[in-house]
Amino acid sequence: MKKVAIIGGTGYGAIELIRLLQLHEKMHVKKVISHSQHGDSLASIYPHLTDFIEEPMDELQIDKLEEEVDIVFFATPAGVAKDILPQLSNSKLQCIDLSGDLRLSSPTEYETWYGKEAAPQELLDQAVYGLSELYAEEIKQASVISNPGCFPTSALLGLAPALEHQIISPQGISIDGKTGISGAGRTPTAKTHFSETNENVTPYKIGQHQHIPEIEQYLSDKAKTPIDVAFATHLIPMTRGLICTMYGQLVRETTTEELLEIYQSYYENNPFVRIREAGVFPATKDVYASNFCDIGIHVDQRSNQIIIAAAIDNLVKGAAGQAIQNANLMNGWEETMGLHTIPVYP
Ligand SMILES: NC(=O)C1=CN([C@@H]2O[C@H](COP(=O)(O)OP(=O)(O)OC[C@H]3O[C@@H](n4cnc5c(N)ncnc54)[C@H](OP(=O)(O)O)[C@@H]3O)[C@@H](O)[C@H]2O)C=CC1
Ligand SMILES: CC(=O)N[C@@H](CCC(=O)OP(=O)(O)O)C(=O)O
């Protein structure tokens, strides 16, 4: 059994990791580390964890981590992991960062989009992008993983096959993203409190979203040509769930049936990607509280475009579940270990 520490204990990412790791056969949560509430038990903050995790949370002691655990999950905001990880560079720890700190290969891009000083170049070079379906071989060899953002997970899984198979143009791709409010983390703001979000749909961060360079970097890598995307995000009055509806210009004649075959074959060894049959599109509830990414495809002959929708649970495939899937790959365990559950429905 490998011992796990979770940093950022009181956040949504951390409690989702705890929920999922409860079912895991090879990982055990040894330490929950909290910056703001060390000394308190997590069950006193989140009563749904009563009887599952009663020990007080710990303060971070970087020099003790290696002797106490094998795997560290950083469920912290951007700006935290990049300062801690360099102090662990000589350790044997496996580290998985859920934040955006290590996702962009260019420090300048990080500084532009995140408004913070970037991680050292050495750390950026060492980190492997943890989108399990697209980078499995690299993840198996990695000791530091940069877990993808929630929107990029959906957008990359939805668009990569069409771009790699040169079915759509690298120019003119549009991504319309919608997310539940838990994507904004636990701390409420004026934009996320109930009376602002209930019965309301709000576009936000248009042209400024930190996931734009991440989507472009990894789509360009897969397509082997530079890709720019138009990306619009919307806040939806639901707790969990995220869906991207994507549009691309067709560059050759094709049909929905042909594309479905291409996607089925592209993801045939990926148990968490489910392709819908022709005429059927996924909804966020189809993947609720699960690690699945469900994809629907339509070839729109009238406008010569492809329309792709990819639904995930932002806290699972978009964060904690993806992080566990990466830990499974890094350790040579079954990729689905602890994660292969039926989505909660209705
Ligand atoms: N929510 C989502 O759907 C997704 C989140 N992510 C990313 O995962 C990470 C965690 O997200 P989430 O749990 O939702 O975020 P939250 O805001 O809910 O929690 C983050 C936790 O980090 C800790 N923290 C906050 N500030 C600091 C600081 N300055 N130094 C150290 N620790 C700090 C706090 O816990 P404590 O004080 O107990 O340490 C806080 O509760 C973020 O980087 C987020 O962007 C990625 C994809 C999806
Ligand atoms: C609703 C909402 O605000 N969602 C967040 C999701 C951020 C996230 O999860 O990703 P990072 O790890 O890149 O911060 C957003 O759109 O910025």
UniProtKB/TrEMBL annotation:
Its main location: cytoplasm. InterPro entries: AGPR, AGPR_AS, AGPR_dimerisation_dom, AGPR_type-1, NAD(P)-bd_dom_sf, Semialdehyde_DH_NAD-bd. Coiled coil: none annotated. It holds the Pfam family Semialdhyde_dh. It is an enzyme of class 1 (oxidoreductase). Residues 3-142 form the Semialdehyde dehydrogenase NAD-binding domain. The active site is at 150. One of its GO terms (molecular function) is NADP+ binding. Its EC number is 1.2.1.38. It comes from the Bacteria. It is found in: Cytoplasm. GO terms for biological process: L-arginine biosynthetic process. Keywords: Amino-acid biosynthesis, Arginine biosynthesis, Cytoplasm, NADP, Oxidoreductase. GO terms for cellular component: cytoplasm. It catalyses: N-acetyl-L-glutamate 5-semialdehyde + phosphate + NADP(+) = N-acetyl-L-glutamyl 5-phosphate + NADPH + H(+). Signal peptide: none annotated. Pathway: Amino-acid biosynthesis; L-arginine biosynthesis; N(2)-acetyl-L-ornithine from L-glutamate: step 3/4. Belongs to the NAGSA dehydrogenase family. Type 1 subfamily. Catalyzes the NADPH-dependent reduction of N-acetyl-5-glutamyl phosphate to yield N-acetyl-L-glutamate 5-semialdehyde. This is N-acetyl-gamma-glutamyl-phosphate reductase. It comes from Oceanobacillus profundus. The lineage of its organism: Bacteria, Bacillati, Bacillota, Bacilli, Bacillales.
